[in-house]
Structure formats: structure tokens, C-alpha cells
Amino acid sequence: MKNILVFEIDERQLGISADLVVEVVRAVTPLSLPRVPETVMGIINLRGEVVPVLDTRKCLRLSAMPVRHTDHLVIIRDDALCYALHADRAVDLATLQADATDDEDSEPAGQLAKTSLGFVQLLNPWDLLSADDRAELASIVSSAPAAEANG
Question: How far apart are CA 89 and CA 115, in angstroms?
Fold first, then answer.
């Protein structure tokens, strides 16, 4: 059985493979950057590493919300790219029940799946970013100056 991290946005339960999750941290307001994809809120300094923050709401076509002190950032690494998903809150780790997925869900990023916490929409990070956006994020990270301050 596979574990997923369940988090919420607008009271919707979403999940991402726990294998991709590096950590979950309390949200901070990211530094805005010019000329970045509209789904990128900005960057944060996470212990010296430059980490782009995705506006998960925009990726899911939901209304924008400012970062609140109760929000979380889900730090994920897929392939060589590390970035954060902005979430209202991280809920828990859940076990994906292999017998119950619903392919009829037409949300842009995934399917509905039954977990030990109930039904959640599974997100595939490759579906949240286009190839061009991924290249842009990689460029942002590689061109950022070495962080001198603690994040």
C-alpha cells in the first residue's frame, strides 16, 4: 500500500505521494519575482536552498488567497526539481486503498482516490506544471544567488 500526504485547499482534501514530500513547513510570504509563470508565487530561502513556491490554488483554477500564518508549504522534490506547494493546511499521512480510484474526476491534476482518511483528489506534480514552467523554475533556482540569511 502507498502512503500519501493529505492537505487541504478551500476545504478540499488533496493528496500527493509521500515519496515526493521532503517536509512540511509553516508558510511564509514568498519573495515575488518578475517574469515568472503565473502559478509561481515567488521564492523562499529554506535553510540556504532557494525554493520556488507554487500557488496551488491557481494550478487548480481556484480563487487566489494571500498567505496566512496558519498555512503550510509542502516541500516536494520530483526529479531534480525542489519546490513548495502552498496549502491551507497539511492534514496527515494516509494509506491509499488500491481498490478504490475514480477515473471520472475531471479536475486538471488528478483522480479521486479512497484513502484511510476518506476520498481525496490525487495530485501529480507533473500535471501542475507545463514543461516550459518546469524549465523556468529550474532556471530560477540555478540563477538565484547563494542564500546568506537563514530561512
Answer: 18
Eight-class DSSP state of 144: S
The span from the CA of 52 to the CA of 138, in Å, is 9
Asked if residue 90 lies in contact with residue 5, where contact means CB atoms within 8 angstroms, the answer is yes
List all residues 6 or more positions away from 127 whose beta carbon is below 8 Å from its beta carbon.
108, 109, 110
Q: Is 10 left (phi over 0), alpha (psi -120 to 50) or beta?
A: left
- Look up residue 34 and give its DSSP letter: S
pLDDT tens figures, 58-89? 988 999 899 999 999 999 998 888 999 999 99
The answer to whether the beta carbons of residues 127 and 109 sit under 8 Å apart is yes
Taking the CA atoms of residue 60, residue 66, residue 69 and residue 72 in that order, the dihedral angle to the nearest 10 degrees is 20
Which of 22, 10, 4 is CA-nearest to residue 114? Answer: 4
Q: Which letter does DSSP use for residue 145 in this model?
A: P
